[in-house]
Amino acid sequence: MKKTLLALTAVGALAQAAHAAPETYINDVSHTYVNFQISHLGLSTQYARFDKVDAKIVLDKEAKTASVEAKIDVGSLSSGWKKRDDHVKNEDFFNVGKFPSIDFKSTKATFDGDKLTKLDGNLTLLGVTKPVSLTVDAFVCKEHPMAKKMACGANATGALKRTDFGMNAYVPNIGDEVKFTIQIEAFKQ
Fold first, then answer.
1. Where are the beta strands (DSSP E) in the chain?
2. What Cα–Cα distance (Å) separates residue 153 from each residue in 33, 111, 125?
3. What is the pLDDT of residues 78-105, one digit of tens each?
4. Which of 12, 69, 99, 139 reaches 20 to 30 Å from 157, CA-CA?
5. 138 falls in which pLDDT band (50, 70, 90)?
């Protein structure tokens, strides 16, 4: 009886050890950007990006679950023209002095097999929190060939209406719909 109990305990311990635990990944700041585009007067599409993003991803590949928390430094906005950057950072648009970050916290992750395909969450911009959905493509996790540790990367796309967050300046001349793309690489901690 003791041997049977010991054997069952050992099997149970091995089964628990075999189950992969959630893994935490922190973004590689040199390979993580949020790009966005918006219509300008119906004449052209203007592009800009945020250069500073901090993100934490908790991924359980076996259970097919993931959570993401990200903070975008609005002051890192870059459109390629300082005068425009200064205007977009002021009270008309991002109001960096009062709202220095854009925050995202996921609420649901959708997988297709081993691939993360969609991430739903709440985005806080200008003090207003609204749900957003990100379509994820090119999701892959593997050993980073130079860092020699596990890394995950993905591209994600989404869209929002800036007026939903109270950013109303110059609508409709400056478009209401903002499309964005996120490129991220993250290392296992």
1. 23-27, 33-40, 44-50, 53-60, 65-73, 77-78, 101-112, 115-125, 128-143, 150-161, 177-188
2. 12, 15, 25
3. 999 999 999 999 999 999 999 999 999 9
4. 99
5. confident
d(CA 58, CA 153): 13
33 and 183 Cβ atoms separated by less than 8 Å: yes
The single-letter code of the amino acid at 147 is A
For residues 86 and 168, what is the distance between their CA atoms, to the nearest angstrom?
A: 17
Question: How is residue 26 written in tokens?
Answer: 């922190």
Strand partners, 115: 112
Q: What does the domain layout of the chain look like in residue ranges?
A: 20-188
Domain at 20-188, CATH homologous superfamily: Lipid/polyisoprenoid-binding, YceI-like (2.40.128.110)
The string over 134-154, giving b where at least 16 C-beta atoms fall within 10 Å of a residue's C-beta and e elsewhere, is bebeebebeeeeeeeebbbbb
Confidence class of residue 19 from pLDDT cuts 50, 70 and 90? low
